[in-house]
Known about the structure:
Blueprint: H1 3-31, H2 35-47, H3 52-59, H4 63-75, E1 79-83, E2 91-95, H5 97-119, H6 126-148, H7 155-172, H8 176-183, H9 187-196, E3 203-207, H10 213-220, E4 224-229, H11 232-241, E5 246-249, E6 262-268, H12 277-286, E7 288-299, H13 306-310, H14 320-329, E8 333-347, E9 354-365
Parallel strand pairs: 3-4, 3-6, 4-5, 6-7
Antiparallel strand pairs: 1-2, 7-9, 8-9
Amino acid sequence: MDNHEISSFRKVLRRFERLMSNLQKKNVCCSGITLPQSHAILEIEELGETTTVHLSKNMGLDKSTLSRTIDGLVTIGLVQRHPHPSDRRSVLITLTDQGKKTCNEINIANDKYYSNVFQSIANEKHGDIIRCFEILVGAMTGQRSVVTCQSPVTTEAKDNELMSSQSYFDNVAGQWDTMRKDFFSESVREKAFATANIRADKLAADIGAGTGFVTEGLISNGLKVIAIDQSEAMLDVLRKKFDGIDCRAGRAESLPVQDETVDYVFANMYLHHVEEPPAAIREMARIMKTGGKLVITDLDEHDFAFLREEHHDRWMGFKRDDVTSWFTDAGLKNVQVDCVGQDCCSDSCDGTASAKISIFVASGTKL
């Protein structure tokens, strides 16, 4: 296949992905679960009963990420765990009656949609479409390990890393509020607010908003908020928590906000997930009004490699001198980088490592 054909294929595929994403969100929202949770229960339905190891291989997810998704499904009563009859070290995962009912609702909605789609396609082409998808899925499954081993300097590898991070947060969205409490407390956002000297009725942007940790504090202080995150699953949780909130899907290099729009920009535990921190800071500065203040809370430089693997951190913290330089290069003045006075704590999934990392607060004003 030549470059022109590949480009044409990718354009069609992007359109297909957008259509699929909208369809899945619509059907899943009606069932009251997140998109990652729907993928999990539909896979369990197909397998009948399975283990976390088997399910993670089938879905192409790491065990820690999948375990959190399953934990959420157990909590809401869609999935149950029980001892494996022949292997005491293993646990079987099955759907509850409510889980089966939820799968049936999703399947009925999808069947109805695709039935209408295929009615507009000539009958003799139906089999060809199915076979084409089978061939494509087979080829992509065979390439999975190749793709993840590519050099990180290639554009495709960077896209994969971004998708890996996005997939991680999509999967943990339903449990993020509980997980976050283990990492750091509300004192982090209070330090950020005090640094910015926030005032009611002003407009703030919460970049990497997640499920609304910073947004919640801003709203309670009387500010208007634009919440931005690359994970639609995170934003779905946030929307359910705050009626009428302005949620926008976007990434670091192209924030969906016009120039000089907001009075404050906050980014909590966001910078270590972006591809190019200096560029992300410049982009955050762009959307601020003159006199606006940027406040970033993030991790000091560390050497806990398991955070890169399990939490998909792109950067193992930062040197404060580098952060200062990035703020200055973005045209910000009165730049300060200080201690929050709290550590971010996390244990590895296998229990062999434990991280305790100091948190900094960096601020600068657009003059």
